[in-house]
Recover the amino acids of this structure.
């Protein structure tokens, strides 16, 4: 998909003294897309993205509210809105409602496209959408009512609720595997390695995490929790986002990926190294010391995976940065790739005992999780959405508003991350200095304020994104126009 | 047969490989822990009342901000001796909807560690006031208040514990008493006391541990 002609006056201009018009933003390349013939798939993918956008707005509105509560704990005293109950609502909504549905939406396009055939079953994909939405609605309501799984992070939904999500994921997995199995090309494209693997891994992770037999005391539960909370992120969101990037990046640049083999290397090291590092969430905890050590060693090993993946993407981009600058989708992809490298490497550093000593239990961890889930995963999702949807529906968003989305999200995240990284480090140093505990709370107060500022910018950008997605909606199914009618209209 | 063109081989390898690694790093060690953890001789199981309190603790999401693990490093010495697996052995799954041990170890210390809070802060009145409005006892606290664990009654009964809420924060009329759930939560918090370690481990404490 080559970039089309430069945009013409899609951005409100101002007039310079010499009389020439000066746009207030750099013009971006426009598309001259044709609507896809396959309207059933377009409607399906758009429905996934629309649900995802709704969950993004709800989930981050809650996150924003939680951030404000740190600076104003007596805002209200409604039990359903109290911090402890609402925090898992935020995390689970953005995980399963926003990120998962959006990544599945893009996968439902990429897997059939790279298999050179249509999706195995559209009705099955609709069923998955219903199941996953149902899981998030019921799960969130129960969490607010004070019903959870036992407080295990990211698996706070009770098992009957997570079973709904798992059923949805199993159906998508079956749908995608069947699509790949019946493909019309010889080789399985690297994107499909990552995407299908993400489903197989995550279904395994959920089953292991929700079987109770070996989790009946808090230490054995913690062994599984470290595994779960890391794999739930690293073997789901990471491979999905990377797999999609192996499609969208070369496609949007209109050139092949730099090295197919590097992609394969990154894939196998992802499986081998990443699987082993869950216990780095319990460094110095009374869980078996050897699994902590294994986790730390493999965390460092992840640098190989990171370098192979990021290097591959950046070398694909080399020489094409003009195209990136002229595109409104590729800047999201570039930001996501850089975030993948830097913030995953940050995770490896946090695993080292010397640094874990300062940062563990502090707000630094919160910065890390947002820099990765947002800077890396959400940005790659947005790159894919802005790259794909206009080509499916033949409707472009306002280039200016896409820019507003990009910069508000990026600058907001920078405030958010910087505030909590600096504040978190101070928190840790306060503890090491042996100061009274409340000093670590007082030290955080200004940083919680800056976090709320950054969070507000991020939230505003999501409203803009939701509006942009609305402007890209598919046209209503047109009444088929017969050839004679068309001829008559042309003559009139 | 090639990983690049045989989807059964590729996805089978991916699935079984991951399953094997998961068994090595997660399921296996978890089973080992289950089989090799015993409660400390000096510890006791939770009473039914304290168990109710643990359910409140988990349902209200206290674990989001409070850890219950003392690490063997110097800065954690203020919270007690380093935690050992036996400290948690009496904690059991909470019920049919949550057939797993609750996640008490925690991952965030926005508030203090609670491993030994029952010994550090043994006053029931303090805990009741703190839950009713944390800023009564800790002015700079950012902890949520839990007024729904209390009710205002015109005249407290003989069995009720009256919470001595100071002037400006007290209700206009009546007395503040904890609900059944509020009472249970405080009982649970007071039960959080480290049992002494006996024998060879007794001399080890976080004091002097390397940084």
């Amino acid at each position: 998909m080559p970039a089309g002609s430069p945009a013409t006056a899609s951005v409100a201009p101002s007039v310079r003294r010499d009389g020439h018009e000066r746009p207030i933003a750099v013009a971006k390349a426009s598309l001259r897309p044709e609507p896809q013939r396959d309207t059933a798939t377009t409607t399906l993918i758009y429905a996934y993205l629309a649900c995802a956008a709704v969950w993004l707005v709800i989930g981050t509105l809650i996150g924003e509210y939680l951030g404000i509560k740190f600076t104003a704990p007596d805002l209200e005293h409604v039990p359903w809105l109290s911090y402890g109950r609402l925090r898992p609502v935020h995390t689970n909504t953005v995980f399963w409602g926003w990120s998962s549905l959006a990544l599945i939406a893009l996968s439902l396009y990429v897997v059939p496209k790279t298999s050179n055939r249509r999706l195995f079953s559209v009705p099955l994909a609709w069923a998955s959408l219903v199941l996953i939405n149902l899981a998030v609605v019921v799960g969130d309501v129960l969490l607010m009512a004070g019903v959870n799984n036992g407080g295990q992070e990211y698996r706070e939904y009770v098992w009957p609720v997570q079973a709904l999500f798992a059923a949805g994921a199993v159906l998508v997995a079956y749908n995608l595997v069947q699509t790949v199995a019946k493909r019309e090309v010889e080789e399985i494209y690297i994107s499909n390695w990552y995407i299908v693997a993400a489903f197989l891994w995550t279904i395994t992770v959920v089953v292991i995490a929700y079987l109770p037999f070996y989790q009946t005391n808090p230490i054995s539960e913690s062994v599984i929790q470290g595994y779960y909370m890391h794999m739930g992120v690293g073997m789901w969101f990471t491979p999905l986002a990377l797999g999609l990037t192996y499609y969208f990046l070369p496609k949007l640049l209109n050139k092949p990926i730099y090295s197919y083999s590097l992609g394969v290397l990154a894939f196998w090291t992802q499986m081998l190294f990443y699987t082993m590092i869950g216990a780095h969430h319990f460094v110095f905890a009374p869980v078996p010391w050897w699994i902590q050590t294994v986790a730390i060693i493999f965390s460092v090993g992840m640098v190989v995976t990171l370098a192979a993946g990021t290097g591959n993407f950046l070398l694909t981009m080399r020489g094409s940065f003009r195209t990136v600058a002229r595109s409104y989708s590729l800047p999201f992809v570039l930001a996501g790739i850089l975030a993948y490298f830097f913030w995953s490497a940050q995770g490896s550093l946090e695993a080292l005992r010397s640094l874990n000593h300062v940062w563990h239990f502090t707000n630094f961890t919160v910065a890390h999780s947002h820099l990765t889930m947002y800077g890396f995963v959400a940005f790659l999702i947005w790159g894919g959405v802005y790259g794909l949807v206009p080509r499916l529906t033949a409707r472009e968003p306002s280039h200016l508003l896409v820019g507003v989305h990009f910069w508000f999200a990026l600058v907001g995240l920078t405030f958010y991350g910087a505030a909590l990284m600096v504040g978190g480090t101070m928190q840790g140093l306060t503890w090491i200095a042996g100061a009274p505990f409340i000093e670590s709370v007082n030290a955080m107060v200004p940083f919680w304020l800056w976090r709320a500022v950054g969070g507000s910018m991020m939230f505003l950008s999501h409203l803009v994104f939701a509006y942009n997605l609305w402007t890209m909606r598919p046209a209503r199914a047109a009444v088929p126009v017969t050839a004679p009618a068309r001829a008559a209209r042309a003559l009139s | 047969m090639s990983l690049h063109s045989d989807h059964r081989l590729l996805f089978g390898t991916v699935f079984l490989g991951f399953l094997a690694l998961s068994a090595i790093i997660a399921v296996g060690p978890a089973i080992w822990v289950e089989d090799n953890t015993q409660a400390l001789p000096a510890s006791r199981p939770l009473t039914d009342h304290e168990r109710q309190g643990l359910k409140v603790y988990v349902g209200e999401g206290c674990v989001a901000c409070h850890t219950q693990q003392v690490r063997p490093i110097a800065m954690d010495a203020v919270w007690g001796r380093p935690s050992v697996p036996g400290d948690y052995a009496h904690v059991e799954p909470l019920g049919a909807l949550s057939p797993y041990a609750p996640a008490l170890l925690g991952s965030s210390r926005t508030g203090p560690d609670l491993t030994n809070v029952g010994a550090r802060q043994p006053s029931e009145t303090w805990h009741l006031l703190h839950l009713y409005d944390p800023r009564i006892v800790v002015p700079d606290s950012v902890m949520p208040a839990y007024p729904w664990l209390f009710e205002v009654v015109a005249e407290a009964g003989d069995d009720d514990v009256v919470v001595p809420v100071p002037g400006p924060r007290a209700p206009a009329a009546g007395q503040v008493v904890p609900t059944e759930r509020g009472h249970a939560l405080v009982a649970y918090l007071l039960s959080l006391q480290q049992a002494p370690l006996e024998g060879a481990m007794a001399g080890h404490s976080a004091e002097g541990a390397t940084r």
In short: The two ends of chain B are 54 Å apart (CA to CA). The first helix of chain B runs from residue 7 to 35.
